Amino acid sequence: MSKDRLVVATLGTYDIALEMGKKVICQRNCETCNGWQALRCTMCKGSGRVHYQVKNYTLKSGEKETAECVADAIADNRAELVHLPSAINLHTPLPSKDCLTCDGTGVMSCPECKKQITSQNLCR
Fold this sequence. Notes:
Elements: H1 2-28, E1 38-40, E2 49-57, H2 67-75, E3 79-84, E4 96-98, E5 107-109, H3 111-119
Antiparallel strand pairs: 1-5, 2-3, 2-4
InterPro entries: Zf-AtTam37
Domain AtTam37 zinc finger: 21-118
Protein name: AtTam37 zinc finger domain-containing protein
């Protein structure tokens, strides 16, 4: 009995190793990221920060249109923000916050490798 278990465990280990090797080799063939599985964020160009403009906001009753009231509306999610990609440079100082695409890291996962992993169509 112990030899049978050993054979099954060995075959299972080989199967797992071959499947993992297949995933690693196929991801190295990715033309988008060259196997790094990550890219510089296209929204913030790797800075981790993205500029935004306030498109629309709702003030509380009795509030006037001041910078503090608009800032409170942004903090309370009563404002609609438009995120501007780093490629757009308006040469005006705009507020910025952490990039939503990369969570402020400046690096996003490769969309091609992500498709391959989720669809399980590796090397087939």
